[in-house]
Automatic annotation (TrEMBL):
Residues 198-248 form the HAMP domain. SMART domains: HAMP, HATPase_c. It catalyses: ATP + protein L-histidine = ADP + protein N-phospho-L-histidine. It comes from the Bacteria. It comes from Luteibacter jiangsuensis. This is histidine kinase. Residues 256-469 form the Histidine kinase domain. PANTHER family: HISTIDINE KINASE (PTHR45436:SF8), SENSOR HISTIDINE KINASE YKOH (PTHR45436). One of its GO terms (molecular function) is kinase activity. Pfam families: HAMP, HATPase_c. Its EC number is 2.7.13.3. Keywords: Kinase, Membrane, Phosphoprotein, Transferase, Transmembrane, Transmembrane helix, Two-component regulatory system. It is found in: Membrane.
Length: 469
C-alpha cells in the first residue's frame, strides 16, 4: 500500500455553534433599531426642551418689559414708594425689583445689590443675583432686565427662571422613563423573538453535520412558516437532491466502468498467463510476464476504487458494534512485527487505557494496517515505527503512527488523501495511490478524524476517535 508524500494538514471544518444569541441577525437588528430609536427620542425631546425653554423665556421677557413699562410712567418723586410697594405685592418671591442711583447704590426694592453683567440695552438676560424675599434668600437663577430712567436712576426688574429648569428636569426624567419603558421590553422581546430563529438555525446546523460528512440523503428541516429561513432551506434541499442525483450517476458510471473492465482484464490476464507458461523458457516469456504484472496493477486499482466506493456508502455504519480498539491495534502489531523485523526496524506498541468504542473492527484493522504498512515501507532499514494509543482529551481515544522516515513537507499536506496522488519521490515505489483514500473513507465512516504531522525526521499520522462518534 503506497503512502502519499503529501501530508494532511488538519483543518477545523466543524460548523460553528450559534451559542451567543446576540450574534444572530434578529438580535443585531433589534439592537440597531433600539439605538436609532433612543437617539431619535433624545434628539426629539432635546428639541422640545429647547423650544419650551425659548418660549418660556420669551414669556418672562414680556412680563419684565411690561413691568418696566408700567413703572416707567411713575413720577420720579413717587418712584421709590412705587418700587417698594410693587416688591411687597409678590409674596411668593417670584418677582424682584430694585432701584439704584447712578453710582449703583440701593434706593428701593427687594434687590439688595445691583446684579453684574446686566447691560442697559433693554434686553433681558439670565443672571445670578442675590435676591431677598419673605420666602427666599440667597442666590437664585433669574432673568433680569435693566432700564435707565430719565433722572439717571436705574430700574432693575427680575423674575425667577427655575420654572424653565424644572421643565427641563421633567423632560429629562421623561426621556429616562421613556427609554427604560421602551428599551427594556424591546430587549426582552428581542431575546424571545431571536430564540425561535436561533433554534431553527441550530437544527439546520445539526442537519448539516451528516451532509458535511458525505451523507447527501439528509435534508434540512423546514418549519412550514414560509419565511426566509424556510425558503433558504428548501433551496438547499433542492440543491442537495440534484447533487445527490448527479453524484449517484457519476458514482454509478465509475463503479460500472471499474466492474465491467475488470472482467475482460481478468480474461486477458488468464490468456497471457497461459502463454507465459508456454514461452516460460524463451525471451517472449519475460515480455508476457511484464504484461501480466501491468494487468495485475490495473486490476488492483479497480479493486481499490470499488473498495473506496463501498466504504463511502454510509449504510455500512448500521453494522457497527461495541469493540475493543486495543485488541485491533494488537492484531495490527502482530501482523506487521515480522515485516519490520525482516527490515531490521524497531516496531513498538504502546497501549494506554482506552475507552470502549463503536465501530467495525475489520475496517479499522484495515485502516491501521495501511498506515502501519506505509510507515514501515517509507522508514529506512534500522529505523523505528511507533504505534501509540491513549485516551483523548474529550474522553475518546487517540492513535498515533510515527516513523523515522523522510517525513512529509508541510506545503504538500493538503493532497495527502487525494485519489491516485503520487509525489515525484514515491512514483518509483509500488502502489496505486489509493491506500490513504481507503483509510480516509474508513475514518470518515466511523466519524473519526485523521491528521498528518511530523517533521523531516519522520511523519506522524494521528487518528482521533471521539467518544461521541
Amino acid at each position: 500500500m503506497r503512502r502519499s508524500s503529501v501530508p494532511f494538514a488538519a483543518r477545523d471544518t466543524s460548523l460553528r455553534p450559534l451559542t451567543d444569541a446576540w450574534r444572530s441577525a434578529t438580535s443585531r437588528l433589534i439592537i440597531i433599531y433600539g439605538a436609532l430609536f433612543a437617539i431619535w427620542c433624545v434628539v426629539l425631546l432635546g428639541i422640545v426642551q429647547w423650544e419650551t425653554s425659548r418660549y418660556l423665556s420669551g414669556v418672562i421677557d414680556q412680563m419684565l418689559a411690561s413691568r418696566v413699562h408700567y413703572l416707567e410712567g411713575t413720577a420720579p418723586r413717587d418712584m421709590r414708594a412705587t418700587v417698594d410697594a410693587a416688591s411687597r405685592i409678590d409674596v411668593q418671591g417670584a418677582m424682584w425689583m430694585g432701584l439704584f442711583d447712578a453710582q449703583g447704590r440701593h434706593l428701593a426694592g427687594n434687590i439688595a445689590a445691583l446684579p453684574k453683567g446686566l447691560d442697559e440695552d433693554g434686553m433681558a438676560r439670565s443672571i445670578d443675583a442675590s435676591l431677598d424675599s419673605p420666602t427666599r434668600k440667597g442666590s437664585t437663577r433669574v432673568r433680569g432686565l435693566s432700564h435707565e430712567l430719565p433722572d439717571g436712576t436705574r430700574l432693575v426688574v427680575a423674575k425667577e427662571s427655575t420654572t424653565i429648569d424644572g421643565i427641563g428636569t421633567i423632560i429629562r426624567r421623561g426621556v429616562l422613563w421613556g427609554l427604560s419603558l421602551t428599551l427594556i421590553p424591546g430587549v426582552l422581546g428581542g431575546v424571545l423573538i431571536a430564540r425561535g430563529p436561533a433554534r431553527r438555525i441550530r437544527a439546520i446546523q445539526q442537519a448539516m453535520e451528516p451532509i458535511r460528512e458525505g451523507d447527501l440523503s439528509v435534508r434540512l428541516p423546514v418549519s412550514g412558516i414560509g419565511d426566509e429561513v424556510d425558503l433558504l432551506a428548501e433551496t438547499v434541499n433542492a440543491t442537495l437532491a440534484e447533487i445527490e442525483r448527479l453524484l449517484g450517476e457519476v458514482k454509478g458510471v465509475t463503479d460500472n466502468i471499474a466492474h465491467d473492465l475488470r472482467t475482460p482484464l481478468t480474461r486477458m490476464r488468464t490468456r497471457l498467463y497461459r502463454l507465459q507458461q508456454v514461452f516460460e523458457s524463451r525471451p517472449e516469456g519475460e515480455q508476457l510476464d511484464a504484461c501480466v504484472s501491468e494487468i495485475d496493477t490495473v486490476l488492483a486499482r479497480f479493486r481499490a476504487l470499488l473498495r473506496v466506493s463501498e466504504l463511502e456508502d454510509r449504510q455500512r455504519s448500521a453494522c457497527f458494534e461495541n469493540m475493543d480498539l486495543g485488541s485491533v491495534l494488537r492484531n495490527v502489531h502482530e501482523f506487521y512485527a515480522p515485516v519490520a523485523e525482516d527490515r531490521g526496524q524497531r516496531f513498538d506498541l504502546e497501549l494506554g487505557r482506552l475507552p470502549p468504542l463503536r465501530g467495525d473492527p475489520q475496517l479499522l484493522f484495515e485502516a491501521f494496517a495501511n498506515l502501519v504498512g506505509n510507515a514501515i515501507k517509507f522508514t529506512p532499514d534500522g529505523g523505528t515505527v511507533r504505534l501509540v494509543a491513549s485516551t483523548g482529551v474529550d474522553g475518546g481515544a487517540r492513535v498515533d503512527i510515527a516513523d523515522t522516515g523522510p517525513g512529509i513537507p508541510p506545503d504538500e499536506r493538503e493532497a495527502v488523501f487525494r485519489r491516485f496522488y503520487r509525489s515525484d519521490e514515491t512514483r518509483s515505489k509500488p502502489g496505486c495511490g489509493l491506500g490513504l483514500a481507503i483509510v480516509s473513507a474508513i475514518v470518515r465512516l466511523h466519524g473519526y478524524s485523521l491528521s498528518v504531522g511530523g517533521s523531516d525526521r519522520g511523519a506522524v499520522f494521528t487518528v482521533t476517535c471521539p467518544a461521541s462518534a
